[in-house]
Every structure is written in C-alpha cells, then in structure tokens.
Amino acid sequence: MEKNYKTFTMDLAGRTLRIDIDRVGKQASGCAFMQYGETTVLCTATASDKPREGIDFFPLSVEYEEKLYAVGKVPGGFNKREGKASENAILTSRVIDRPMRPLFPKDYRNDVTLSNMVMSVDPTCRPELVAMIGSAVATCISDIPFDGPCATTQIGMINGEFVINPSQEEWKIGDLNLTVASTGEKVIMIEAGANEVPEDKMIEAIYLAHEINQTIIAFINQIVAEVGKAKHEYTSCAVPAEMFEEMKKIVTPEEMEEAVFTDEKQVRENNIRKITAKLEEVFSENEEWLAILGEAIYQYEKKTVRKMILKDHKRPDGRAIKQIRHLAAEVDLIPRVHGSAMFTRGQTQICTVTTLAPLSDMQRIDGLDENEVNKRYMHHYNFPSYSVGETRPSRGPGRREIGHGALAEKALIPVLPTEEEFPYAIRTVSETFESNGSTSQASVCASTMSLMAAGVPISKPVAGISCGLVSGDGDEDYIVLTDIQGLEDFFGDMDFKVAGTHDGITAIQMDIKIHGLTRPIVEEAIRNTKEAREYILNEIMIPAIAEPRKEVGPYAPKIISVQIDPEKIGDVVGQRGKTINEIIARTGVKIDITDDGKVSICGTDAEMMDKAVEIVKIITTDFQEGQIFKGTVVSIKDFGAFVEFAPGKEGMVHISKIAKERINRVEDVLSLGDKVTVVCLGKDKMGRLSFSMKDVAQV
C-alpha cells in the first residue's frame, strides 16, 4: 500500500517519538497519531463552526480515554466495556487542559474538544506524557486559533539523580513526579508530587524540564511548517470598548474600587449586584449590551482589582502583599469518628475526617498499569454549593473535586507510615464548610491534623498555601501575592499551590491564565510559599496538635499482627475459605493474610481479637505430645469422640481415654456440643491427632 501520510521523528530522552500526520482521523480539525517507544496514543483536536450562544467562557473539553486492550486486559465487572473515566484519566485531562487553555484566544467561544485515546502502552513510555504532547501537536497543526506550540516533559528522581521522562516503574519508586509544560519562552504549568524535595532542587528540576521542552517545541514547529493548516477566522466575543466607556460614566472607577475593597465576600457580591442592577436599568434599551453585561462587569471589576494591586499595592481585603489571612485550627471537632480536625483561613474552612480500616479495605484500581493497583491511602474532597453561598443539587464529585482530592493526597503520601509500621487502610475526607480561595491547601492542613488526631504516626506535619500573581506589560512588572482569596484567583494570573514539611516540598500545582512565568516569578513563589507554610506549621498547626497520638481512638479498629509460616497459610484459609470464614464468624474480626505469612487481625472487641489470635496460633502450630487444648465434641462414634479444637482442626479421643474409670458407651459421658479439655498424645496409626481427656483436668 502506497504511503500517503507524513511521518516525523525525534529522539526524546533516548527513545524515538514518532508522529504520523494524515494517516488517520482526517476529518478532525487536527490529528496526530503518536508513538513513543511502543506506547500509542491517537490525539485529535476539533472545533465547532460557530461560537456557542449565551456563554461567557471558552468551552474547552479535554478527554483522556484509557482502553484496557492497550495492556491486554478485559474490563472487570459485569459490563465488559470501558465505562466512565478513571481518576487517573480525569487527572490527566486536567493536566492537559491547564497549560493549553490560556493559549486559546480569550474572546473565542467556539466549542473545542481535545481527545486522546490510549491504544497501546509500553511500560517504559508513560501514555499520559504522549497525550500531553499529542494534544499540543494536534491543535498546532489544526485550523483552530492557538498561540502555541507548548510542550511537556516529566522528571523523576532516583537516588538524587534526575530521570527524564521516567518509565512507569521509575515514576512509582522515585522521589519526584514532576510534570512541566512550557511555551517557547516560559514555564506555563507545573504539577509535582515529591518526597520532601528541597526548594532549590525542585527549581533545578523545573528548568531542566523547561530546557527539554524547547527541543520538543522546535520539533512541533517543524511539523507545523510542513503540514499545518491556516487558522480560521472567528467571531470575537470581546466587550466593545465604547461599552466600557459608557459604564465608566455611570459607575466611576472610584465607585467600583469602593465596591470591591472589602474583606467580606458577601458584602462585595452584594455591592456588585447593586452595580449590575444600576447598569441594567440604564442599558435597558440596548439588547446587544444587555446580553454581554455580565461579562462587561466582570472585566470592569477585574481591571479595577488588578490596578489596585499592581499600581497601588492594595489588596481587596486590605492585607499586605505577603500577609496571610486570620488562621485557626482545632482537632476532635466530630465525636466518635476515628479522627477529625478543622482548619480555617479567612473565609476558607475545611473539616477533615479520618477513617481507619483493615488493609483488605484498600481500593483496587483496574487501569493501564500492567498489574492491578492497590491504593492504601485515599483522600476525598467535597465542595458543596452552600460553601460559596449558592444552591445547586449534589451530583457527586466533579473534575475539580477529584483534582483537589488528588493534590492533597499527593502532598500527604510522603509522610505516611509504611504498612509494616501501621497496618491500616486510611481514608481522609475533606468537607468544605466555607470557600474563599485555596481550599485544596486548607485541606492539606486539616488532613495532617486529622491524621495525627486519629493516631496515624505520620513522620512530619505537612502544610500548604497558595500564591497568586498580577502582572503588567513587561516581564519586570508584576506582584506575587501570598495566600490569595477567591477574587484574587479569579482576576489574577496565577494560582501557585505548594505543600510541604519543614524540610521540603511534597506537592505543587500551578495554574496560570497568561502565556507563562519567568524564572524570577517561579522562584519567588516557591520562596514565599515556604515562608508561609513555616508560619502555618509553627504558629497554628503544631499548637493545635504537636504530634500524632500514641494510640488509635476508642472507636477505631485495633489490629494485631501475627507472623506465621507461609506454608501454613492454606491451613488458616481452609478449603474454599471455610476455615478463615469460620474464625471470622466465631469472633467477629476481620482477617488479612499476606503472601509472606503476615496475619492481621482487626476488630474492636479485645477479647474476640485475642481469641482469633489463639485460634490462628493453634492452627499453625506443629502439634506436639503434651499440648493442651479446649475444644467441642463434634462427632461421636462407637470407638470414641472427635473434638474440634480450632476451625477445621479435629482430634480423636479413644473411648479408653475419656474417663479414668471404664465406660461402655461414649454417650454415657459425652454429648454433641460438649466443651472439653484434652491433651495431645501425638498421632495414631492413621495419622490422626490422638487426644486424652482422662489425663488432664476438665475445666
């Protein structure tokens, strides 16, 4: 078959990145058939012909589809086809969205969908990275207006050495999971999970990735030059300049500044409602302007806030540029739960509840990892409408909630104890009581305290804080704000979240609305967040709870661990689980057994837990003459009785060993269900355990 498509290749971190254009998906606006090693991802970009009516935002959708055939799996469960997106797919979609969204025109309202379908996975080449690069390629070669290209690189770190675009295994075991997206000049997105990586080392890793991104951007430019389409014209949805001028006559800049200059979110929103009503009345005859009045007021408010901060160095709530809002922390807010804590920062308030469970309650994830993944620590974040004074029905967690939960989870994983140190599955749930900026980092603080209150022996407390940015015309004209509230996030250029301990960074998430950050801005943001989290840890969190409690709470399950010979695991489990299920039924405990013979017994009744431990020890002991057991008569024969002394374990008491005196019938002394004490005599000729009742006192 004659080749009628273009192929482009480059060496990327020692592996070949291959991109086929016009091989498949020709009806999409742009399509890149991506191969990195043997990982294959089909990336497409498609735009609608016309803008969507009645909206004041850019309708961008990013999809990352995990096809389980990519790793030779059939989906689990009853429905043998892929269903809703996994958590990993949602998080990957967000990482693609965040650097690309700012590069589309601000006044563009056409629907755009970026779709990435994972078709095969080579464990040495992570499909998430391929999708990130492929989305940029597909958009750049399309006719969709886009101020790219942008590129993405991932950095790992093993034994202190950086690994460029690490394999799946290196990504799991390394001390750093860093994803950096760049334009041709600046860093545009940072996402990181880290094992307390020092700030200077993190900055070094960020700019190593930025340097590699420049080689990818040069490669994409080469592709665009050869096969790129001309960008299409579109209907601008920008607010007319003459409308702004009329608005300023009705509501002066001084009046707008007075309306937004308050530390009370509700007061500010009420002020804006009054301004909106006033302008609606004046513009009642102008239907065209009325249709875009909401966007116009947003832009007016945004210009006012940015001017106040950048030129006058005044923040809407009156704080200094690096000042943190009022902070408060408390533990044990909720009775009976295993652990709880609340953290408040201004009008942002998070309560986190910790639940402990046996390891069998770990979450199992069926994804593109070749092995089934067990997730021991789960952090879930909820954002109800009342937290921002709104009303809407709860429809379960959206992408934002999943993203915020994953960020806090990432921040706390490095300080959690190992399974050997603390054999529990752990779930923390952060409930947003009130929101006005950076709830994800408040949930990091609340979760740290909640874990300590629950008796989870974390190695160090973790705190998080967010920095914002307002920039002017040049690279030198900017202000970095510490602890941004909602208004500064909405109208600012950056939300730079950093979590960590006293000793280093554990998580970063950076979102921006402009075309990138210079290195001085990145360094200042990281420096300022370190200062802020040191203050939060020392002055607020540690005074509330200085260290993890020595024991889990009274309502938390207790776990006793017993080590047995791995060859005895089958004896404890029994045929088709009969033995272990009988132990559970008798004692009410939960039992987990690992392949190395570690038995974890979990329960709340100490007596029943001790009984379960005793049963396990009996079952796994090599029986010796002279051992004494208590058991139940389960069968009576002419020649003797069988006594069950542990689930699935029986021994025989010969009629001559039942009583000191001679008896004619077993039934004269014993009945089914009798509780008896026996001593082991060894094994009889048939290999059965032989017991005696007459040689031991009956208790």
Summarize the structure.
This protein is an alpha+beta fold and 699 residues long.
Describe the structure.
The longest helix is centred in the first third of the chain and has 29 residues, at 199-227. The chain starts with 5 loop residues before the first strand and ends in a 7-residue tail after the last strand. The chain contains 16 helices and 29 strands. Strand 11 and strand 12 (339-345) form a beta hairpin. The strands form six sheets. An eight-stranded antiparallel β-sheet has the order 8-7-9-10-21-20-18-19, with helices on both faces. It has a six-stranded mixed β-sheet with strand order 1-2-3-4-6-5. The chain has 699 residues and is an alpha+beta fold. The chain has five domains: 6-227, Ribosomal Protein S5, domain 2, CATH 3.30.230; 241-310; 327-468 and 518-544, Ribosomal Protein S5, domain 2, CATH 3.30.230; 558-620, K Homology domain, type 1 (Ribosomal Protein S8, Chain: A, domain 1), CATH 3.30.1370.10; 628-692, OB fold (Dihydrolipoamide Acetyltransferase, E2P) (Beta Barrel).
